[in-house]
């Protein structure tokens, strides 16, 4: 069972995006942020990281902060509980893309000069070791299995499985063309998010950070109105809007700040930690 939470506090759960929100210049938890999360945990307030990252690219941050809490991966397509006494987490939700649509997209990608990464739980398949792969390795400190798109398609076909997330990276024009093409062909089956001009992130339909809040609220026995959420990017807007208190970091996009109830300092200046200290008197 999750640690008991004091019912006297107006906010009883904190959820935060990772990249651009929680991490510092080195894409790590600063000592200040790690200490603040430990103090928050000691007060009985769970801190849950919500990200497009895979599980193995998130767990090291929990270890650095010294906390054992659930993680929301792939924008909500895969949610793990805290580590249980047997040394393993429990899966709270797992949702992969429609199998046939996923295979059709892989086939379509072969016609474009783009990088393709497919993720399933803790496995990352990349279709080549290129500058895009190297950038993701640098950002996440996780290494992929290199599998050309043809072999990737064959492997998923043989195993009869789909992916929790697909990441497509390439030049702006190719990504823009793919965005509109995929939206027209598969928009009823998958959600396609253009996180940068050169990035497409694809998940199963109706997967979002916002919807993950309901899963977490039920798990901890609270309401969504008792959640504080932090974010910086477009895919954080729904989460910030629906939480009891949505907080944008200072470097967030203007539309994200507009959706938030409060704005804190930039991520590289420990904005999340500073705000938590005020809210929870740490």
From TrEMBL:
Pfam families: Hydrolase_3. Gene3D superfamilies: 3.30.1240.10, HAD superfamily/HAD-like (3.40.50.1000). Coiled coil: none annotated. One of its GO terms (cellular component) is cytosol. GO terms for molecular function: magnesium ion binding; phosphatase activity. Signal peptide: none annotated. InterPro entries: Cof (IPR000150), HAD-like_sf (IPR036412), HAD-SF_hydro_IIB (IPR006379), HAD_sf (IPR023214). PANTHER family: HAD SUPERFAMILY HYDROLASE-LIKE, TYPE 3, PHOSPHOSERINE PHOSPHATASE. This is HAD family phosphatase. It comes from Candidatus Merdimorpha stercoravium.
